[in-house]
Amino acid sequence: MLIISTIHIRRDIRERLTGDYPEHEFRFHKSITEAEGDLSNAEVIITYGMDLEAKHIDIAERLKWLNVISAGVDQLPFEAIRGRDILVTNAKGIHAIQMAEYTIAMMLQVARETKTLIQNEAGRKWERKLPIRELYGHTAAILGTGAIGTEIARRTKAFGMRTIGFNRSGREADQFDRIYTIDHLKDQICGIDYLISVLPKTDETDGMLNKEVFNNIKSSAVLINIGRGNVIQETDLLTALQDGAFTHAVLDVFNEEPLPQDHPFWLEERITVTPHMSGLSPEYQPRAMDQFDINMKKWEQGETDFLNRVDPDKGY
Question: Domain D-isomer specific 2-hydroxyacid dehydrogenase NAD-binding, which positions (predicted)?
Fold first, then answer.
């Protein structure tokens, strides 16, 4: 079986894969362009997903398994994948630790006025009267109670925060004090201090955080988005912040990436922009390959209960 990659995989991981599966042929490429010559014979493709187009799926006539080593699969050409008996798996769960740490870091940054302190240090300004606050005793609300949301909740609880979660079903989840269905967000928004979104990009989540939410949120609240940029109605967000509806927004994901240099988010002092890096970690690829190992063993044994299987019809 020919297994190809369209991404740069670390040398130690390449050596591990070829050593663990000597009966299969691996060809490691650094891009989809470099891999095009092998597409027609590939039965398994290891990819981040955003590089694949419908034409690549069409060329890959022997493709049986698309292993996406990212959680988001919204950029996959599902229209070409549907109708073909292609297994699609993603890497849900491997981002949980680093994204939870990022979230806590940003919460503390805002609470302890870290950006102002850095600016003051650069300007040699001694100022102690800053509006700092604690996380303890405040309410964190997490939109999405899967692996990432649960890991964030584990850490907010460690800081003594009341932690509530929102999901589609209202199903209970570990680490949360209370779970609500997502349609109850508007009922709870006035009591939330930190609103954290880890929601994926779907039709249901498009524009979910809009003026209706922002007009009813606490004036001291902080918004953190590490899911997908489509969740936020950008114009409504800017207007709300400029009107003082709430304190700050930390944004790691955007409708357009890279964020254009002339985008107003860069100039708004109440917004912290980071370049879609909350999921980055030196442990990213090793964790992704651990999941690949699990599914590879299932594949070889003829099992069908694959880890993180994606439904092409649903897109997640």
Answer: 104-278
